[in-house]
Amino acid sequence: MANQASSSSTALEVLIEDEEFLYGAESGWVEARTSCDHLASLSSDLVHIPTPETPCNRCHNPSENWLCLCCKEVLCSRFVNKHMLEHYQKVNHCLALSYSDLSIWCFSCDAYLDAQAILQLHPVYETAYILKFGQAPPFPTTDNQAEASTSGN
Ligand SMILES: [Zn+2]
Ligand SMILES: [Zn+2]
Ligand SMILES: [Zn+2]
């Protein structure tokens, strides 16, 4: 009696609190972090980034995409085909910028990052903002830099 135990435990889906993510993004009450321990993985060349119209590199979804700030790949959100999330899980690139609202998310911190408060994020935020809106962001991105004196080697 070949009882083929069909171990068909179909891909169990790990549902990460989508709601929290969504509401946090939209309502603005979620506090964005003003620091992040993962900024070392930022790409060193964030001046040249793909345009916000770039489709997902994997599924060619045209909108709601994220820019990986580590390797500059454009990947779709967890509301589409989760390619950015997948990318993080595979290669541990945790920093991503949303091309829909320019928010910056750190998967490792599991939180939004305050692009205004974190100097390292200014260049890419500014570049993305200009690409998207055709003008510089409303807050001064270069003003406070004297304060946090450059600790570059
Ligand atoms: Zn995709
Ligand atoms: Zn990446
Ligand atoms: Zn982080």
UniProtKB/TrEMBL annotation:
tRNA processing listed as a keyword: no
Keywords: Metal-binding, Zinc, Zinc-finger
Residues covered by the UBP-type domain: 34-134
Highest taxon listed in the record's lineage: Eukaryota
Signal peptide residues on this chain, from the entry's feature table: none
Gene3D superfamilies in alphabetical order: Zinc/RING finger domain, C3HC4 (zinc finger) (3.30.40.10)
One of the record's GO molecular function terms: zinc ion binding
PANTHER family the record matches: HISTONE DEACETYLASE-LIKE PROTEIN
Name the UniProt record assigns to this protein: UBP-type domain-containing protein
Organism, scientific name: Vitis vinifera (Grape)
